[in-house]
Design a protein that fits this description.
Chain lengths: ~140, ~375
């Protein structure tokens, strides 16, 4: 895994369809955000389960984002609903572990929302930067 | 020393050579009843014949439930489960054949608790009605209850209530136990999946906080925590001995008499760690017997069947089948509820009750022994 050029690494799970498309569009036009996140492409945001998010935190991620398509735009059906369902338990679990629940964010996008994605990544990075360093050292 | 030599030493230590190949272990094994490929006898055979390269052992070392029923049946007295625990670290290789349930999330949560600078929020169940202290001789070890309730929030289990009820029972007899806000997982599941490094980190962090609080007796409400703290934590220094007891053992020891009688009929599921591993069969039965009618399932005490899983390994169709059969036994006693002394039995059996096809036949109330006793003294 290439090391992130950032003191507080953020991992972002991108659904292969709308969010990754936005990400690619953004990569063509912008470069200011690239150092902020470490992208992981998955076929659907419903594929991301709590184990993967917790593993990211265990390995030193300071924040984790799950970026999926909007509910009715999923190519497979129940994916976004699944990712919404896991969000609350994950926040509760990391809260018990002593991490702030703002460190996890689950957001939904359409194909044409690259600017919203940029804003979201920016604001998430700012939120994470304000928090203390996570106690988990890889 | 290479892996094969380490394995030979373990074989020597647990006297696997003494196996007479009678097959009683396989005959008794609850997993072998449903999974015809699994046989403790064959594991013993192949581990001697083929050593570390045996494909059979590589796979079956992980499917074993470690419930300990084979130990009870072995005429030679081989401790097969302890043997499995000893060889598992050798099989954490790139060719790992085990399967961690829930994607390994639960083991991950436990490993994360081994981080030294942790500031957990694990005692949010404590309210004004609980009397606890920060220093004292008696400690209540809550274990993973908070994590499990949150993780299995879909199942609507009231696991934090077990902790709350245990403290209430202790308060009712005038004990104000120490409850540590920075307590860590006991590490049971990690040592049983062969992760000794994380286990020892958790162990030393826990022992350090026990020392700080000046603890002499530890009370748990979970069979696995009792077993781990008692048998695997050892007595690290001579000047810091501590006694470990399950809540039922403790109440029996001090001659606790429960309050009002409950009208329900119960059947008791023996957790493997509390029953076969620690020999605590009578204490929970006496306590329950004094407040309600208790009926036994066909397999009980040392012969009790497993709840289908341990250490969050291999939750598969065989586990489901074992759980369904166990629930059928419980249903057959015509009891109103199953009482157990281990939160994990509760998680596993409740999960099986949610089976779409068998929901009507299996649905039954399941509660922890602490909650039942707390209800009787209210």
């Amino acid at each position: 895994m290439p090391s992130l050029n950032r003191k507080k690494p953020i991992l972002a799970f991108f659904c292969n369809w709308a969010p990754y498309r936005c990400y690619m569009d953004l990569c063509r036009s912008e470069s200011s955000f690239r150092h902020l996140i470490y992208p992981v492409k998955v076929m659907c945001s419903g594929r991301v389960d709590p184990a993967m998010v917790l593993f990211a935190f265990e390995k030193g991620a300071e924040g984790v984002m799950v970026l999926g398509c909007k509910d009715k735009e999923c190519r497979y059906g129940p994916g976004p609903k699944q990712s919404t369902k896991i969000a609350e338990p994950i926040k509760a679990l990391i809260h018990i572990l002593g991490l702030e629940s703002e460190r996890f964010r689950s957001v939904k996008y359409s194909f044409n929302e690259k600017n919203r994605l940029l804003e979201e990544i920016d604001s998430f990075a700012k939120t994470v930067d304000k928090l203390k360093k996570s106690p988990f050292v890889p | 020393m290479n892996q094969n030599n380490i394995l030979s030493e373990i074989i020597e230590k647990f006297q696997i050579f003494h196996c007479v190949e009678c097959g009683k272990c396989t005959g008794a094994c609850p997993l072998a009843q449903v999974d015809r490929d699994f046989s403790p006898r064959l594991v013993a055979k192949y581990v001697i014949e083929e050593g570390i390269d045996s494909e059979y052992v590589k796979e079956k070392a992980w499917t074993c439930l470690t419930c300990g029923l084979c130990n009870e049946r072995c005429p030679i007295g081989i401790s097969f489960t302890e043997f499995i625990r000893a060889i598992r670290p050798l099989f954490i290789t790139e060719d790992f054949k085990g399967h961690l349930s829930h994607g390994g999330a639960l083991q991950g949560l436990m490993r994360m608790q081994a981080a030294p600078d942790l500031n957990q929020n694990r005692i949010d169940w404590i309210t004004g009605e609980h009397k606890i202290s920060s220093q004292g001789e008696i400690l209540y070890f809550t274990g993973c209850l908070t994590y499990l309730e949150t993780f299995f929030s879909e199942m609507n289990l009231e696991l934090k209530k077990i902790a709350s009820d245990t403290v209430k029972i202790l308060n009712s007899i005038g004990v104000e136990p120490v409850v540590l806000p920075d307590e860590r997982c006991c590490g049971h599941d990690l040592i049983w999946i062969g992760d000794e490094i994380s286990f020892h980190k958790l162990r030393s962090l826990n022992i350090e906080s026990f020392k700080k609080a000046g603890v002499k007796t530890i009370i748990t409400s979970c069979g696995e925590c009792s077993y781990t703290l008692k048998n695997l934590y050892g007595q690290p220094e001579e000047d810091f001995p501590f006694e470990v007891m399950h809540i039922s053992e403790y109440l029996q020891k001090i001659g606790f008499s429960a309050g009002k009688e409950l009208s329900e009929i119960a059947t008791y599921q023996d957790p493997c760690r509390l029953g076969r591993f620690m020999g605590v069969y009578d204490a929970p039965r006496q306590l329950l017997g004094s407040i309600m009618e208790l009926r036994e399932m066909p397999h009980f005490r040392a012969g009790a069947w497993c709840c289908g899983n341990s250490a969050w390994l291999h939750c598969d169709r065989y586990s489901k089948q074992m759980q369904v059969e166990r629930l059928m036994e419980a249903k057959g006693t015509k009891s109103d509820l199953i009482v157990t002394a281990c939160p994990k039995c509760q998680v596993h059996l409740t999960c099986a009750m949610n089976d779409v096809n068998l929901m009507q036949d299996l649905n039954m109330k399941i509660r922890d022994i602490s909650s039942v006793i707390a209800e009787s003294i209210e």
